[in-house]
Amino acid sequence: MSEEPLALYVHWPFCVTKCPYCDFNSHVRASVDDAIWCVALLKDLAIEAQKLPGRRLASIFFGGGTPSLMPPATVAAIIEAACRHWQPLENIEITLEANPSSVESARFAGFAAAGINRLSLGLQALNDADLKVLGRPHDLAQGLAALETAQNHFDRVSFDLIYDRPGMTIASWQAELARALAFGTDHLSLYQLTLEPGTRFTALHKQGKLTLPDAETSADLFDLTRMMTAAAGIPAYEVSNHARLGSESRHNLAYWTYGDYAGIGPGAHGRRSGIATERLKKPESWLAALESGGGFSETALTSTERATEALVMGLRLGTGIDAARFRARTGVALESILRPNRVARLVDQGLLEHDALGLRLTLAGQPFVDTVLKEIAA
Length: 378
Known about the structure:
- This protein is of the alpha/beta class and about 375 residues long.
- It has 15 helices and 17 strands.
- It has helices at about 35-50, 70-85, 100-105, 110-115, 130-135, 140-155, 170-180, 200-205, 215-230, 250-255, 285-290, 305-315, 325-330, 340-350, 370-375, and strands at about 5-10, 15, 25-30, 55-65, 85-100, 120-125, 155-165, 185-190, 235-240, 240-245, 260-265, 270, 275-280, 295-300, 320, 350-355, 360.
- Strands 9-10-8-7-6-5-4-1-11 form a nine-stranded mixed sheet, sandwiched between helices. Strands 12-13-14 form a three-stranded antiparallel sheet.
């Protein structure tokens, strides 16, 4: 395992506003001391580097929260330190998630100069009415301007859209997705809106104040998304992610294929050769604990726990789970954690494919990945 390249995740926990559908570890603060946060993230990075010596670095991902609120100088300092702690691959992928406000897009040139070579832009919708419903702090004009600026500064640009939104129809999503595909990016993240516990959207739904498309419409929207992206040459390579061949997110593939990754910053998770790491979530608690070299937990995972995690992550991929790689990364055979009778039934129903090479969802099974996982995991 130690010979395999490493991925690094850097969490910036702050946002301008909290979106009503978001259950990520994000926090709104009146002000942030950027100098203190730069020092703290560099210290946390050094802690991880001590525990993962001699590794090559394949990717860095700045996520959040809203990491485009970070000063480019902080981003540059983290990239420089990471590439000093670990030997970067020649084609290292360095991604930053960004919101498309005019303030943040003005920093894109600085991020590119700092070493970011892939930008992931949170557009989320292509009309002002739905952006307002989603609680986004930008309007469509700002979003499109930010996308143009991003494409001028980065060779690789991805953007997110949320579909299955309140009031969405097949016709409205078809028109919106066609417009999105015409922008010519090499990667799209297209997420069906889900109601997460503890979010404002979930509370509104329980009160009858938020209505989502029915199950049949949701299924049709999913199928339409797959058909249109495939026809445009950016097919799904994961349940919600679409890319031209060779433009897949290498960082996210490390998660989905159960590779090692280090996670720094509040709430960040990591996996170090069978050890699960997790940072304290609240920014102020993480900062205080870091002063004494703490702020994180380490848990040794059993082979069954590793295998279950690898199953959950790997089945999301279009190519599914490679049985040989699964054994190499978990220490157990894929078959040992499956319920064979249920797998066979789902194969007969046309939802799964299962052979000596591994396990994968069919096109018909992909919308039901969570249901399938509950059925087949021993």
